[in-house]
Amino acid sequence: MRWDDFRRSSNVEDRRGDGTGGGGFRLPTGGRGGGLGLGTIIVLGLVGWALGIDPRLLISGAEMLSGGGSGYTEPAPQRSAPSGLPQDREGQFASAILGNTEDVWSAVLPDQAGINYQAPRMVLFSGYTRSGCGAAQSATGPFYCPLDRSVYIDLSFFRELQTRFRVTGDFADAYVIAHEVGHHVENLLGILPRVQQAQRQASPEQANQLSVRVELMADCLAGVWANHSDQKYRSLEPGDIEEAINAASAIGDDRLQKASQGYVVPESFTHGSSEQRVRWFSTGLKTGKIESCNTMSASRL
Length: 301
Description:
Blueprint: E1 12-14, H1 38-51, H2 55-66, H3 89-113, E2 121-124, E3 128-131, E4 134-137, E5 143-145, E6 150-153, H4 156-165, H5 170-188, H6 191-200, H7 204-233, H8 240-250, H9 253-261, H10 274-287
Parallel strand pairs: 1-2, 2-6
Antiparallel strand pairs: 3-4, 5-6
């Protein structure tokens, strides 16, 4: 992916290396049985992120089974975040992709939806930090918090994708960021608040189905971004689409459930199957239209 010439976003807060991870919660330590290892925490976090389960619940449950305590303690008071844009390659990449999503959506959203684009903030952290939605940890994977309109990401997640899911390539990583920005677009469109309200009144199965629709729409919006980025900036290179498709396929609910438990439970899906994630990303990529991403009323997911 040709990202070196992308404008770097100024909406990046780099909390890496500030000693407290920006003021979040400590990783589990001590307790009877010694607590969970970092490797176990990362695995549980990746599974939770992919399946739409709060990873803190998985980690907490595993700690209780292993004899550990609650595992979390309040750290020292939050320090102010370092100023200035990231200078390392990983940080530069993240700020460049965010900057490109800002440039694309600032043109596409008013044109197609009549809404001015308000850029989200991206928080880079290492290990743990605070978010408007609670504690953020490496184990949770990247996520979007609608309460503070921010994308949170520990960039070591991309290395985990490579080693554990065999997902490689700059565009695969860009797809992950664009997916989270897609949730921000859903928030600006008013979709997230409506879905969250509906989920509070729904059965667990219905709530899961609503979650699938939200996640597939974010996949499709990531495709819309890629379409317009390539049209305007010629950003895509041979093999990039395959990288994104590989990423979408690798984290499908069916594939993850099959690998973790040997069988698939469709009614428990929260992000969609591999086929669905690939198809909706491809839909956005081909059409470049927000309206083509209306998973909320689609008869076929």
